[in-house]
Design a protein that fits this description.
The chain is of the alpha+beta class. The protein has one domain. Helices cover about 30% and strands about 30% of the residues. The chain contains 3 helices and 5 strands. The protein has helices at about 1-15, 90-100, 105-115; strands at about 35-40, 45-50, 55-60, 70-75, 80-85. It has a 5-stranded antiparallel beta sheet with strand order 1-2-3-4-5. The chain is globular, with a radius of gyration of 13 Å. The two termini are about 20 Å apart.
Length: about 120
Amino acid sequence: MQKLTVFAVLITFVGVPASAEEGATTSQLVCKAGPLAKTYGATDWLVYGCNDEHSLVFVSAPGSRAFEFVFILHYKTNAKYQLYGEGNGEKAFTEAAFKEISTLTKADIDALVTATKAK
């Protein structure tokens, strides 16, 4: 049942065409690589890599105080990223995770993308 929830969330938030005006192509962003179990903001997250080889999706793990919440770390251009999230997790925990995820360096992000492919 947990995998179905994660899959539905990924389709809902990530399976939309990227905007051409944002410098991306019009292909869909699909994030199925992984997941990696990670902790951000003192809560558990499942991290998925995307088919653009740069973007990541962070899904709060079932049972986490941040559940149900999703962050998308979307690659724009020139190593610029946009982090945004949506969901109903406890605000204190999702804000703490947002702060921690937003400090990831390009090298950190690249390492996560590579690690999701190995799963």
